[in-house]
């Protein structure tokens, strides 16, 4: 069983930055591909970014490419999402998720149903 706890959300002005963290409280976390998704009320959960356990593969959605960076520190059981040049449309609840295998190809990484474990979410609000 994997437990995920996100932190780092908050209120920021457009153009600003935030760094989200997700700590996994379980042994064996290092073998999971990890992803970040976001959701606004009334819409489906949207893929943001994903990273393989070895950090050799990373994927980003088009709206965040070039502005967000996903990374992980397996020694700390933590995955990060550095968000720069934030826009009002980035406002959402951000969720961390753990997959069921070490590496996901792009087709699998973008699908919420491919992830077995989810955190409780952290709110990010960008004021324009």
Provide structural commentary.
The chain is mainly beta and 128 residues long. The protein has one helix and eleven strands. It has one helix spanning 106-109; strands at residues 4-7, 10-13, 18-24, 34-39, 46-51, 58-60, 68-73, 78-83, 92-99, 115-118, 122-127. The strands form two sheets. Strands 2, 4, 5, 6, 9, 10 and 11 form a seven-stranded mixed beta sheet that branches. A four-stranded antiparallel beta sheet has the order 1-3-8-7, with no helix packed on it. The longest helix has 4 residues, at 106-109. The termini are far apart. The model has no long low-confidence stretch (mean pLDDT 94).
Q: What's the pLDDT, averaged over the residues?
A: 94
Percent helix range:
under 10%
Structural class: mainly beta
Note the run of SSEs as H and E: EEEEEEEEEHEE
Number of strands: 11
Q: What is the strand content?
A: over 45%
Low-confidence stretches: none
Q: What shape does the CA trace take?
A: globular
CA-atom Rg in angstroms: 13 Å
Number of helical elements: 1
N-to-C CA distance: 40 Å
Biggest beta sheet attributes: 7 strands, mixed
Characteristics of this structure?
128 residues; mainly beta; 1 helix; 3% helix
Reconstruct the topology from this structure:
Layout: E1 4-7, E2 10-13, E3 18-24, E4 34-39, E5 46-51, E6 58-60, E7 68-73, E8 78-83, E9 92-99, H1 106-109, E10 115-118, E11 122-127
Parallel strand pairs: 2-11
Antiparallel strand pairs: 1-3, 3-8, 4-5, 4-9, 5-6, 7-8, 9-10, 9-11
